[in-house]
Amino acid sequence: MADWEVIIGLEIHAELLTESKVFCGCNTEFGGEPNSQVCPVCMGLPGALPVLNRQAVELAIKAGLALNCTINGTSQFDRKHYFYPDLPKAYQISQNDRPLCSHGMVELSVGDRKRQIGIQRVHLEEEAGKSVHVGDSIISSEYSLLDYNRSGIALVEIVTEPDIRSAEEARLFLEKLKTLLEYTEVSDCKMEEGSLRCDANISLRPKGSSAYGVKTEIKNLNSFRAVQRALEFEADRQRRLLQAKEVVLPETRHWDEAKGMTFSMRSKAKAADYRYMPDPNLYPLQVDEAWIESIRQNLPELPDAKRDRFINDYDLPPYDADVLTTSRHLADYFEACVQEVDEPKLVSNWVMGEVLRWLKAHELEIESSPVAPKELGGLLKLIQEDVVSTIVAKDVLSEMFATGKSAVEIVDEKGWRQISDADSLEAIIDGVIAENPGPVADFQKGKTKAIGFLVGQVMKASKGQANPQKANEMLRQKLQK
Ligand SMILES: [Zn+2]
Fold it and tell me: What's the confidence (pLDDT) of residue 271?
């Protein structure tokens, strides 16, 4: 890609965590019987009038603040017209030229570099219903079913500036955005349930040029990985066209995950096609400074601030702080555990290592970990007090996950207390020395590395229960005599 610069902008839709829909009182819970959570407003029946949900506005403002946006005192709801069976009014209530939030910015770490991605706008709108195409795909389907439970759920649309310069940056941006929306409890960001969706615009231009090339829009991106793969594919496709002096058509393209390709869907709609007009049933939305300020005051500590605090207060390496603050629950888990064991780096190693590994293998999130922070703290204290070695502690943790018992219970039941007393260790060490004359001779000739092997043998002979530091000391004393 040496001669071409990739320009990417993203449009993200995130469902807001409100209990009722944005313009009616219907329930928003996911997974209900089709068309069981509907009323005349969200079914678009003639004469039904929308009433704005205050909580939806509050969450949209929260999102705007977390993305460093200006919150506009007056914004406007507009009708965006298009015809599709899952849109019963034949228009979506959205915001066009006067959005609720604008001019924001998100900072990303891309390798060692910091990148600032502009946020053009965050606006409030309503969800459409859901079409269920019977059969394999929309094209071969004989008929489609419609479920309006989702119709009218509150959404924010977040539009970035075309500041993203690679497929990887696009993925990193989405990860950061998800973290911010989860921290602020604006959205649960479940891509698999459709509560976070992303469309991507991409174009190429010769390096050094300031004019934009023709862009395509990619839809059907169902995971962060899909976003990165689709953008890599599309950048490559456009580059080949441009290098062959062919044209890139302005079109909407569909990402096919299985084939790993994008396909042309339709030529791109222009804003004029939507015939935007102010919705006469809704007043301009006024939000006063005092309300915005009270929301700002009640924002939780955001990931960047938390990361910096973890580095400063706990003396953690930046890598650890990054990993631990990717989710608010993970950060809380870490801090709760540090309350128990005042050795942050030890806690961080175990949380990032054994705990996350086990959770990942069992497809669980940290908030549903069977081992609570207090319990993990109990195990780490046993390491600090030399009751168990690190090796044995890993087995103890596996047992804790499996049985829900405490570390102390397991260690006592299994007889896994570390052997630190000299008499017991001495018997094992004498055995190892007798069985390994070669390495013993090596050590005595000055090959100090041989000690590592001998300590390993002691650990093996004691089934991991010997205290490795003690074993090392005692071995050296004996061999140097
Ligand atoms: Zn309704």
Answer: 63
Lowest mean pLDDT among 92-96, 169-173, 306-310, 439-443: 439-443
How many Å apart are CA 28 and CA 18, to the nearest integer? 7
Q: How far, in Å, from the CA of 467 to the mean position of ligand 1?
A: 66
Domains of the chain: 4-293 (no CATH), 301-414 (no CATH), 422-480 (1.10.10.410)
Centre of ligand 1 to C-alpha 481, Å, is 86
Compute the distance from residue 404 Cα to the ligand 1 centre, in Å: 44
- Rounded to the nearest integer, the mean pLDDT of the chain is 93
What CA–CA distance (Å, rounded) separates 83 from 131?
13
Please give the distance, rounded to the nearest whole angstrom, from the Cα atom of residue 99 to the centre of ligand 1.
24
Give the three-class secondary structure for 365: coil
pLDDT confidence tier of residue 431, bands split at 50, 70 and 90: very high
What is the per-residue pLDDT for 353? 95
84 Cα–ligand 1 center, Å: 19
Cα of 389 to ligand 1 centre, how many Å? 59
pLDDT at 181 over 80: yes
Nearest to 241 by CA among 226, 229, 253: 253
> Could you tell me the distance, in angstroms and rounded to a whole number, from the CA of residue 195 to the centre of ligand 1?
18
Whole-number Å distance, alpha carbon 40 to ligand 1 midpoint, is 6
Distances (CA, A) of 147 to 188, 287, 433: 21, 33, 75
- Note the pLDDT of residue 268: 67
Q: Rounded mean pLDDT of 22-40?
A: 95
How many other CB atoms are there within 10 angstroms of residue 88's CB atom?
18
Please give the distance, rounded to the nearest whole angstrom, from the Cα atom of residue 339 to the centre of ligand 1.
46
Distance (angstroms) between ligand 1 centre and the Cα of 72 equals 27
pLDDT: which is higher, 265 or 207: 207
Cα of 435 vs centre of ligand 1, distance in Å, is: 79
269 pLDDT exceeds 70?
A: no
CB 238 within 8 A of CB 253: no
Percent of the chain with pLDDT over 70: 98
How remote is the CA of residue 36 from the centroid of ligand 1, in Å?
10
Q: How far is the CA of 28 from the centre of ligand 1 (A)?
A: 9
Query: Which residues have CB under 8 Å from 312's CB, separation 6+?
Result: none
* Residue type at position 16: L
